[in-house]
Amino acid sequence: MTLFLQILWDWLREWTSLLRSPCFPVLFSLSVYVGCCFPYICLDLLCSRLALVRRFKIQPQSKVTWEAAWRCLCKISRNHVCFIFPLSVVHWYWKPVVSPPVAPAVLAVVKDVLACLLLFDTQYFFWHLLHHKVYWLYCFFHKEHHVYTATFSLTTEDTSVWEMLSLSFFTTLNPVLLDCHPLTEMLFFIANIYLSVEAHSGYEFPWSPHRLVPFGLYGGARHHDLHHLKFKVNYAPYFTHWDRLFGTLHTQKKSRNTETLKRM
């Protein structure tokens, strides 16, 4: 595996001029995001026709329209061009890209990516909690992300400019704080985008990440779907430990128990 990482890194270093371009972060971010969304967009198109797909949808009654998908895509593209690109130029000038000849070891990549995800999870939890508890922060900055009570993949970055820039700042800052290898930084970014899209996808499969992580330590799509549905629960984007500590964790099992009590 380490050899594969070295081959991958050697290949990427051949594109050094592109990696060092101020345009690269925007192109990379947008292409990774759309690439992660694409399989779920295909499922959304098939959902109304195939019962097999519909059985994995968390809220099967919800439908994704072309109008909503196109609106999200246009908004995301506009935000990247108008806001992410200027910041990429500033970052490019302030911190030039370095290309060390040796790729990181596999264990180092796993450790650093996990550390970045845990750090981002912590930052986002407190940022998210604050923007729900402080009324004016919610109204002016976070309300845009709660337009849909049933999310789909493209709504992941359907946010206000402030929210997009805040989360982009955390994503960029964490690998710098942990002194990650440039390849590790790219892999963390890909993992972070994929997990964010998966959490907003509206689908739960047998191979979904939360089913692969034991003891309920990871929330996943159903965890975040309940946040958009119930509003004041499940603030953490990925893991569940902060919600457990603050008493804001809500599960499907709890929802069923509550509905049972109401019927009684």
Automatic annotation (TrEMBL):
Stretches assigned to the Fatty acid hydroxylase domain: 113-248
Alphabetized GO MF terms: iron ion binding; oxidoreductase activity
Keyword Zinc assigned: no
GO biological process: lipid biosynthetic process
Main location: membrane
Location(s), subcellular: Membrane
Presence of the UniProt keyword Transmembrane in the record: yes
Cellular component GO terms, alphabetical: membrane
Pfam family, one: FA_hydroxylase
Keywords associated with the record: Membrane, Transmembrane, Transmembrane helix
UniProt protein name: Cholesterol 25-hydroxylase
Organism: Seriola lalandi dorsalis
Top-level taxonomy: Eukaryota, Metazoa, Chordata, Craniata, Vertebrata
